[in-house]
Amino acid sequence: MTGVFLGTLSLTTIYSKILEYAGPRLMSTLGLDINFLVTLTVLCFAIFTSAIYFRDGVKSLLYDYYSCTVKVVSQDPLFSALMTFLEEEGAFNMSKVESQQSQIGEQDTEVKEKGWGQKMKAGLKQSNKIKYAPAPSCEDFFYYKPTGTTITIIREEIPNSQSSWWNPRPKQQVQLTVYGKDPTPLKMLFEEVVERQNNKDHGRTAVYKARQGSEGGATGAEWIRCFTKPVRSLDTVILDEKQKEEISEDLKEFLLPATNKWYSNRGLPYRRGYLLYGPPGTGKTSLSVALAGKFGLSVYALSLSVAWMNDDTLALLFSSLPKNCIVLLEDIDACGNNNSNTKAGVQVSFSGLLNAIDGVASKEGRALIMTTNHRERLDEALIRPGRVDLQIKFAHADKKIIHGLFRAIYEVNESDKRILKFPNDFPDDDEIADLANVFAEKVPEHIFSPAEVQGFLLRHKKNPRRAAAEVVAWAEQELLEKKERERKEKEKEEKEQEEKERGERKERRKRAKEEREKRAKREKRRKEGKASSDDTDTEDEKEEAKKEDDKRVVYSLINEDSANIVVNGINEKMVGGVAKDVVKVNGSA
Ligand SMILES: Nc1ncnc2c1ncn2[C@@H]1O[C@H](COP(=O)(O)OP(=O)(O)OP(=O)(O)O)[C@@H](O)[C@H]1O
């Protein structure tokens, strides 16, 4: 009954009923007029709204005319250092957070020594620690003690629409504002950020990796600080001392400010290029990282073989390098040469690579280290002076390198021996020197890479005597396996070559057939007196036709006589490979 009754009442009726009922009671108990109350509420609301408008207006006026602002975009190497600093200082209100892996701080990941670029992926051991970052578009206030100033921090995502491959949008930007005309607090803050970053990097080498930046349909790429690792001493790279010194001195001189001036006075682009070539596992990457460590440079590693790398992204990455860094470009032979031969899956063209290295957009002040296992496949244009100023050859280990590797592994200081629980009877330095001689005598020279020898030694990390005793058996076994691997590889290569040649022959036959048919048609038209200017053979066509006629002669001869005799007899006159082709044609016919 009650439900039906309420249903029939309208809201206005209820409201007027309440006013009718509550009004007089409020009046009698509180002494307040209901009309007065309503007016007061509306007035408060109006004042509150105007106050907000007023505050925003003043704020925007102050912001426009009486503040200093610095914006840092995510592509700037300073971005991650700044975010780490602010996070460490507790500047962010973490009530609105998002989990994040790469932007704030760096991924403290362990990386296997072997290789960069694509290989690095396999070597990364992701730390499972989840990091939190303040969600974008939040405003934070950070009290910066040294200057007693409050800094407003706004972190924003940047809209997609502004991006294009030549100007990829930064993913994010952080904006720091202080009110007042004095930018000193911001300057001081940035000095502290850089100093803290430098202190952290001291004794470490920072490694940056190229990352695809493709959103909103536009492709792009950016460098991302991946990790830092302790500086690798040049002494741990076992190589001919002269070669090490040569490249080290060259780089040292290049980095001098006077050299920069010298280059610019002569209008030369201030860049230096090195080529490290040789079989896998001989120390090319290790030397590059050790050099970076020695001169306090960061390494910018990239590989041409990653699926998204193309001419544009490569050029973009080269144009966004900082000054004084080492760019490590591995497996440079992947993009082929002027006559193509690009590896499957590689999108970077040879001209694209040349353009990135020393095109107009390429940054100055960087040292480029290119590595390859196949120097013979490189185009001379790529390694001409100016692009490559110094070449270092790496080879399989000789006696000196084998000896050096042994000593490098087993010369351990007392504290490491204690911490790592080395056995008490671990040989002293004199015995290690003797064992190193024995070891080097037993390993055949120029067969194994330093990486292979090092791999064996690491198996007996705490037992050099055993390593020296067992190395012969290991070397024999390895040799057998190596030979088997080489045999299989050769077989595979031969098969691929055969397949390629078969394809080329097929293509040539197809073209020749089309040409014959075309000529026959022309001939027919000529005989019928319908020849047009198109039917006149060009010099090239005449030459092609002559070749075709020759082929047909061979072909008919083959049909009559023994193929081998004819081919051997005519081969002299033939253009390379034609006779052989015809034999195969005949064979398959
Ligand atoms: N000459 C060397 N001195 C010291 N260690 C070496 C040397 N060569 C190789 N190694 C060791 O072998 C491993 C692989 O070396 P590295 O990656 O530098 O070889 P690479 O020549 O760059 O190989 P790839 O051509 O396959 O990239 C590393 O652990 C490195 O320490």
From TrEMBL:
SMART domains: AAA (SM00382), BCS1_N (SM01024). It is a single-pass membrane protein. Residues 485-553 are annotated as: Disordered. Residues 270-398 form the AAA+ ATPase domain. GO terms for cellular component: mitochondrial inner membrane. It catalyses: ATP + H2O = ADP + phosphate + H(+). It is found in: Mitochondrion inner membrane. InterPro entries: AAA+_ATPase, AAA_lid_BCS1, ATPase_AAA_core, ATPase_AAA_CS, BCS1_N, Mitochondrial_chaperone_BCS1, P-loop_NTPase. Residues 485-520, 543-553 have a biased composition (Basic and acidic residues). Its main location: mitochondrion. It comes from the Eukaryota. Pfam families: AAA, AAA_lid_BCS1, BCS1_N. One of its GO terms (molecular function) is ATP binding. This is P-loop containing nucleoside triphosphate hydrolase protein. The lineage of its organism: Eukaryota, Fungi, Dikarya, Ascomycota, Pezizomycotina.
